[in-house]
Amino acid sequence: MIEIQKYKLDNGLRLVVHQDKTTPLAAVNVLYNVGAKDEDESKTGFAHLFEHLMFGGSINIPSYDMPLQNAGGDNNAWTSNDFTNYYLTLPASNLETGLWLESDRMLSLDFSQKSLDVQKKVVIEEFKQRYLNQPYGDIPLLIRPLAYTTHPYKWPTIGADIKHIEDATLDEVKSFFYAHYAPNNAVLCVTGNVEPDDVFEKVKKWFGSIPAREVKKRELPREPIQTEMRELTVVKDVPTDILQLVFHMCARTDAEFYATDLLSDILSSGTSARIFQSLVKEQKLFTDLHAYITGDVEKGLFTFAGNISDNVSIYDAEKAIWKEIERIKSTLVSEYELQKVKNKIESSMMFAEINFLNKAMNLAQFELLSQAEDLNLEVEKYNMVTARDIQKYAQHIFTEQNCSKLFYLSKNKKQVEC
Amino acid sequence: MLERKEVPAYALPTGLTILEQQELKLNNGVSVHFIHGGTQEVTKLDFIFSAGVVQSNKPLVASMTNTLLQEGTEFMSSFEVAEKIDFFGAYLGQATNYHHAQLTLYTLSRYLPELLPIIEQIIKKPALSQHEFDVLLAKKRQDYLVDSEKVKNLAYRKSQEVLFGNNHPYGRVAKLNHFDEISLSDVKSFHQAQYASNLCTIIVSGQPGNNFLASLNIHFGGNDWSNSTPDVQDVPEVIATSEPFHLEEKENAIQSAIRIVRPCVTKENPDYLPLLLLNTLFGGYFGSRLMNNLREEKGLTYGINSYMVSFLKAGIFGIATEVMVDQRELAVTEIFNEMAKLRDHDVEEEELTRVKNYMLGDLMRNLDGPFAVSDAFRGLLGFDLDFDYFTSFEQTIQEMTSSKLKDLANKYFVQDDFYVVVAGK
After folding, report:
1. Which of A96, A124, B235, B425 could be joined to B325 by an S-S link, Cβ 3.0–4.6 Å?
2. A416: pLDDT confidence band, cut at 50, 70 and 90?
3. What is the CA radius of gyration of chain A?
4. pLDDT, tens digit (0-9, with 9 covering 90-100), for B189-208
5. A155 part of a folded domain
6. Within this chain, do residues B32 and B177 fall inside the same structural domain, yes or no?
7. Which residue of A has its CA nearest to B38?
């Protein structure tokens, strides 16, 4: 149970505070309600590029990092298709330094051409390092446009094309900022060795005068319901074949989310899980195989991803996955198996409550999606799921017409006849 | 009116507060280091054995043995072990390094009585079956092949070879043929020789409850699992290469991975802690000289860092980055230029203070909570060091001066002492 205090500023900024006296530190987490899905299709990768620019100096403070390091702090940020999240930790006595820095860049950035030019290069190197210069690194670039024809989830956060990043202009950067970065489009969460009322006063002091902004209304195109199986085969210079099967699933805030998550756990959480035991350990068709969900805010993807064993045909391996799918669609999971995955959820939630920064990130996300208090209801929601719910949902999503397949083949592997 | 241009007043807390620790012993003499703390009723248990690469005479044996332990026992199948651990919501991890191998259990404390008997079987009576061996080896082989496609791994492997030579455990990197040369009997004899009570240390952290020592004694306190293997951590002489530049070519590489490395001191050397400060300033944090030059000014890379590693018998000072292939020479030149600047010029007080304050904050982060302290303790294992190490570290940071830094740079940042390893083009 995480105890919290909440406040809302007149400009719309929501503040969540959680006191944890066991640490001498504090965390400041600012979650902006903007992600890659808010990008224009011809300017993808922008939300993430923008995240880099947020460290290039703000309107009153030329360097973000230096004053934070002076105060013993450390920081980082991440961008997803749904959110952009900035976080820092520092000795709790220096909390105000963190609030000062975060409030100034929420107020306005410095918008320097030099910073933009350099960060474009840095992001292009990141693109190469993570997606182009790694074996299988381009899978997200292949699978997303296969599974989504219309919805902006069809491109990854790094962007669909390096060229989009190269072409970004300072004017676009500015309008992106004013359209999305605003107190009324963010959640601030402070955790650690802090006094909630004191945090509120300091937050009011530093964030209170930032004007509310007219946030660009989100009108995402709807993904049409998939009506037939899609398939993509690529052949590359990689050591082994990889198979991915993806299915459209519900959104994070849908009631079915909990059953879907447990469905993926039954199949794949821990080494005792079904597909690992049956397809990796017993039949040796894969050397590694996972089933997982994206947990996206909008309707997401349920993925099977596996490395095919040498001397095994990828098509035989695929058939074996469908057999496991048939099994879970036709037979109820046992009470013991269901209890096992529920116990794992409870345990991992408990472990997640150890770290004050972790708590700050989770609370901010729950506050943005619904309310921070709901984080404490998660275990109960998972516990309500029945074997029948899981079966029903498996029957609903695991159909051929809801499936996209990626065969990522090794150029050098001797392809086995099927 | 708010003074937004002025930094709000800040101060760094002085005097590290580290969680209380106890040195305990099981009835058979096994050391149990206990770190008590945290708000949640959870426990982390580390079982650490002198069962690393140094103690094995063949590549892959140490890590294969360690990983294979949890794949079934004489009384339970691999599936039964996994299912029990999963059912109680616990997590069992393992790691192998040069001098040690460990098993780590994370669990809700209330399930310790159910889980300890399984851990006992895993450690004392693992099945080590041919089937599980084959499955694991096939997976490790594929992982190895995939890793071999990544330039950063190629550069790392080569750098270890260059520094220590093929006959030294630190330099003996795995090759593809090693996967054909290892057999189940290697694993069995390694387990028999190295997984014994006389080679074991236990670290307990969290809130394990009042009876944990009694429970540990029931399962691990007897004399049924000792042997006569001495705890040997010696390593042969280092035979480093004399060639200063090494290129591992990889066709179609879009970026080249660079490793610039030199032999360096271990944690027991008085220069080690001061060097950590020089390392941080040079390339050890986001505001470092290398990050500023190569990323923030020139945009050559997504990231660059310098690092210090201390194994028990030798250390490494290194720099690692990935850059676009046609800029690789510029990157190397700039890295050495940054070294020269630190040799030739005093660090400004402002920058020095920033590094000190950042490091003091980082020290707090690294010792925050029972699990972090447990990891910190593990890092000292095998060295002639105790937790005073961290108090000296704090003091070293506070007392560092720019002239001491310059002396260190002149002693350790000598270009001829470094090897340059490039993977890619």
Report:
1. B425
2. low
3. 23
4. 999 999 999 999 999 999 99
5. yes
6. yes
7. A22
| Nearest alpha carbon to residue A269 among B39, B86, B156, B208 | B86
Do A12 and A130 fall into the same domain?
yes
Do A187 and A116 lie in a common domain?
A: yes
Residues A39 and A129 in one domain: yes
Q: What is the pLDDT of residues A165-217, one digit of tens each?
A: 999 999 998 999 999 999 999 999 999 999 999 999 999 999 999 999 999 99
Residue B135 and residue B253 in one domain: no
CATH number at residue B368: 3.30.830.10
Q: Which residue of A has its CA nearest to B82?
A: A272
Cβ contact B89–A118 (<8 Å): no
Assigned domain for B212 exists: yes
Instruction: Tell me the per-residue pLDDT of B273-312, one tens digit each, with 9 for 90 and over.
Output: 999 999 999 999 999 999 999 999 999 999 999 999 999 9
State how far the Cα of B3 lies from the Cα of A59, in Å rounded to an integer: 13
Interface predicted TM-score (ipTM): 0.92
* β-strand partners of B91: B106
A contacts of B40 (beta carbons < 8 Å): 350-351, 353-354
pLDDT, residue B15, reads 78
Instruction: Print the domain residue range for B350.
Output: 245-424
Domain shared by B170 and B130, yes or no: yes
> Nearest 5°: phi and psi at A367?
-65, -40
Q: For the purposes of burial, counting CB atoms within 10 Å of the CB of A275, is it exposed (0-12), middle (13-18) or buried (19 or more)?
A: buried
A232 bridge partner residues: A406
**Predicted pLDDT of residue A417:** 47
Same domain, residue pair A259 and A391: yes
Structure tokens at A54: 């947020």
B-chain residues near A65 (CB < 8 A): 286-287
Return d(Cα B180, Cα B58) in angstroms, integer: 12
Helix A335-352 to helix B78-87 angle, to the nearest 10 degrees?
Answer: 60
Query: Could A73 and B138 be called an inter-chain contact, meaning their C-beta atoms sit closer than 8 Å?
Result: no
Contact state of A100 with B4 under an 8 Å Cβ cutoff? yes
pLDDT tens-digit readout, A113-140: 999 999 999 999 999 999 999 999 999 9
A222 in a domain, yes or no? no
Q: Is the pLDDT of residue A418 over 50?
A: no
- B317 and B211 co-located in one domain: no
pLDDT at B247: 97
**B16-75 pLDDT, tens digit each:** 888 989 999 999 999 999 999 988 899 999 999 999 999 998 999 999 999 999 999 999
DSSP string, A275-305: HIIIIIIIS--EEEEEEEE---SSS-EEEEE
DSSP summary character for residue B355: H
Number of structural domains found in chain A: 2
Cβ separation B10–A126 shorter than 8 A: no
Do B416 and B352 fall into the same domain? yes
Task: Judge if A75 and A153 occupy the same domain.
Answer: yes
Q: Would the CB atoms of B139 and A91 count as touching at under 8 Å?
A: no
Q: Read off the pTM.
A: 0.94
Q: What are phi and psi of A89, to 5 degrees?
A: -130, 150
Residue A69 structural domain = 5-207
